[in-house]
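Why do we care about 3D structure at all? Because function follows from shape, and shape follows, mostly, from sequence. That is the central idea of this module. The next example makes it concrete: a single protein chain, its amino acid sequence, and then its structure expressed as tokens.
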Amino acid sequence: MVYYSNEAIIEGIRLKSDLIITHIYDEMFPSIRSLVEENSGHTADAEDIFQEAMIILYHKVKNDDIILNCSFKTYLYSICKNLWLQRLGKKNGHNITNFEDINEELEIDNETLNYLQEIEDDQEKFRLFQANFLSMPKDCQKVLQLYFKKYSHREIAEIMGYRSEKYAKTRKFLCKEKLKEAIIKHEQNSKADKVP
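And the structure:
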């Protein structure tokens, strides 16, 4: 078995090395899968958590914001454990007593914990956006995709076959408002569901 130092792994992540990424997955995913499966999860959940942890690590490495006082494996495991604990905390009725008190996790600092929460919140918002976006009529999806890609109203009119730039602008506005209303309604329903 090949051994890589913390520094080699971090540099591999920085360079997006296939060799290092494969090594991290082969070496560390089994323990993450066990952690998740032993605590009310499935293999697919473990893969999600592992992926989220790797994204967090990549951003921290890219911003030179990572200091390891332990092995890389321990650090990654702690991030995955925190992510899974957060996810379980959002689902009522799950038994999470197999975890030690999160405050006793010395391998992970408060700044990283806050970052994990921000990532989780952003993903919730993205999932909400995506679900509502995909339920919209296809022409609205296309108009908004073009808008998000910074196409001008004239270009949108040409691509969509609209009669004028003004109509494209109106259509974009209506689709955008429709999406916004759907997201707000979805959020309100979610909050209502949580009220005992």
